[in-house]
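S., here's the first fold you wanted:
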Amino acid sequence: MQCYAHNYGNNIILFYINAVLGIYMLFLVTTYLNNLSFKWNKTISQGTILILGFHYLFIIFFNEIYKTNNLGITMLYALFIIIIFIPIIQFIHNYFPWIIGKSKNTN
C-alpha cells in the first residue's frame, strides 16, 4: 500500500476492514493505557503546549550538532527532547503556572 501515491491496493474492501480494525485496536490500546498512571506521562501531558511551542528550537539545535537523515537518530532526538522538557515543564508548573494557563498555587 502506498497512500502517498493514492495506491491502496487491489482490494478496497480489505483496505476498509483493516482501517476499521486499526482504529479499534488504537481504541483498545488507549483505553488500556488510560487505566495506567505514570508521573512522567502526566507531566508531559500537562506541558504539551510548551513542547509544541519550543520543540522546534531544540530540533534546530540538534540538527546543527549532528546532521542526519536517519529515521532512528531522528526518533532518538524526539525522545531526548521530551526527556529534556520534563524538568522544564515541572519548573514552569511550579513557578510560572500562568504560562500554561493555570492560576498560581497558594501552597
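And the second, which I think is the more interesting of the pair:
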Amino acid sequence: MSGILSKKRPLSRYLKDYKHSQTHCSQCGKLLDRMVLVFRGKIINKNAIMRMDQPIDDAIWLSLQPELAAQCRFCSEISCKSHANYFDIMAFKRYLFQHTEMNHSTIREYVVRLRRLDEMLVVRDYPAEKFASSSCHQHIIDGLPLVAHKTYRIALRKYEQFLAWRRSC
C-alpha cells in the first residue's frame, strides 16, 4: 500500500465542527453568541447541514473551508439577503466598522435606516440620475414624512461622510 488512506466523515460533521470552532464574525469581528454559516454567499441553515451526509476526506474539507464564513446574524442579513439599489450598504457597513469607533448597535441602526430608505426609494421609483446629484439627499428627505426627517438625515449624513472618505482614497 503506497498511500495513506484518509478517513472519511460526513460533510455535516465537518460543518458542525467548523461552526462550533468559530468565535468571531468573519466580517465585523463581533464575538459570536449566535451565528450563521455562509457558503459561497448563501446561508446554510441547520436543516440543510443535517442533510449533507455525503462522506468527504480531509483534503476535500480543506478545499471547501475558504468558501465558508461564520457571520453574526446582522452581517449575514446584509451580505446574503440585502440588495440595495441606491446605497452601497456593504461598503458603508465595512467603513463604519473599520474606520469609526461606533459600537455595533449604532452601526446596525445606521445600516437599517439606509436599507429602509433604499426600499422607500425603490417603491417611489426615485430617478437614479436625481439620486446621483450632489444635493440629492435633501430631495430625498423632503419626500419623506416629517416624523422621519431627523432619523434619516443622520443616517444620510453618515453615508455622505463615507462617500467623502471613499473619494479621498
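Why I say that: The beta strands are 9-10, 36-39, 42-44, 55-56, 68-71. The longest strand covers residues 36-39.

Talk tomorrow,
H.
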